[in-house]
Amino acid sequence: MATGFPALTGDVLSAAMYNGLVAFTLNAQTGATYTLASTDQYQVLVVTSNASTKTVSIPTDATYAFPNGTAITILNTGAGLLTINATTPGTTTVTSAGATAASPTVAQYKTAVCIKTGTNAWTVVGAVA
To answer: Considering the entire predicted model, what is its pTM?
Structure first.
């Protein structure tokens, strides 16, 4: 997470906070599964690198209520396809332009951004299939 974020109303933007806006913090994930966490928002790049297929899951608001408008960027550097889905599909809705809208896939060296659009609702955009 960028230094000093999230900021609160009335906070003064320091040089360290301002300079932190231009760089991503890397969250390297080498396993077959990963569930997004509160630390993945605000200038974080989730990097998956497993050679096999892998899944990144989006939790329900009951687990962690990301603010609406949250955008989480995911980069797949592993050879296996990455699937993005909901931890609980009946509660959390994931939509995309992918062939399977609720479970978009991301190939090696491609990125996708998960954007929270409402209560338990996410849209995945980017290089999805």
So the answer is: 0.83
